[in-house]
Amino acid sequence: QAVDEQEAAEESVSHKLTQRELTYDKAAQSLLNKLIRNNLVNNPNQVEVLQKDPNSPLYSVKSFEELRLKPQLLQGVYGMGFNRPSKIQETALPMMLAEPPQNLIAQSQSGTGKTAAFVLAMLSHVDPNKTYPQCLCVSPTYELALQTGKVIEQMGKHYPEVSLVYAIRGNKLQRGMKLQEQIVIGTPGTMLDWCGKFKFIDPKKIMVFVLDEADVMIATQGHQDQSIRIQRMLPKNCQMLLFSATFEETVWSFAQRIVPDPNIIKLKREEETLDTIKQYYVLCNSREEKFHSLCNIYGAITIAQAMIFCHTRKTAGWLAGELSREDHQVALLSGEMQVEQRAAVIDRFREGKEKVLVTTNVCARGIDVEQVSVVINFDLPVDKDGNPDNETYLHRIGRTGRFGKRGLAINMVDSKMSMNILNRIQEHFSKKIEKLDTDDLDEIE
Ligand code: ADP
Prior knowledge:
single chain, binds adenosine-5'-diphosphate, alpha/beta
């Protein structure tokens, strides 16, 4: 136990490390979400719209036809399997496609259709007969830029006259050359060099400037400044668009420096609740006993799919091994894996190829696997100081109110300390966590 705690402490310290790592973590999470998400998230909240000119009529569309897109683009949109605009697209698209173009700041959680929206706006605005850059899109990392690039390619599939180039480190161009591609997508540093130092791009000819993932962007030292310097080179009538999944004060003040006279669209994240969850705890004396209780639970109830959270990589690895030996089909998600590997593991789990996903706290932050009906906290979530991490607890087992199916959460307690954590979590949410006797499991079915 002591060893485990020390290891856990080391792991959380190593996750507190540098600014650079923190940033990487945000960008990695965002990338992970993109890699595993293949459709829109359902969000029943209303969008909040703040218009630059509150007296102008607010247009919203219920179909892509209403937008009068170029036929090649409409074909691209339908080819991607989109039938109708998502909730934020309903208002964001008419604003972005209006004449004269309007500036926009939009905030909504990942998976709500922001990328698809600004890609469509960029593709609609370019003039394919002009062979110079007209749209710039900056993203926080190379990998995120590539993901957006893929969306441009898919949506522009029937519009081959429009082409795209990546302004990313490693993409070296000859001195003195001028880009012919209409759309440039890249990271702020390289984009700035291409516009300024190397003059591969004439910033005065840019008509649309997109800044994606503003919240991830400002977490990187230097990105904010570089983005602002790019923005200052652009003409006054260039359309400025900024997107973010979250909206803290720092993001907001950055957004206002990038986007003058903005229209603002916000879609609140759906609140998570414990109301539809049955919460239990199991009292054990050791890690081995926790494992045996877990096996008893598995023997007694039918569990379609479960996620099991451990505090350290070592415990997660050990548990996954033990479960496999008991013939469970287990997937292990672990901190040392690359984002793509993690995405592949999560994908397989979502497809039901594995029934159990064992993971560490740190690793599973920010991912949603909606269909999981049973969540097991093999170790309770604690922060770096050993206090209960209520937010993680809620995110892990909480369901969103409206679409929430009933769920089951089982917490494994194996010491006075973890009992104390459990009690504090219980108090925090004012919701009882019942004791479960794993030798008599009739009650939970
Ligand atoms: P965000 O940028 O907010 O994370 P995306 O634009 O990446 O959201 O969209 C999330 C997922 O939903 C993607 O898989 C995308 O292809 C899909 N999607 C986007 N817009 C629509 C739509 N109107 N109809 C159906 N699916 C959509």
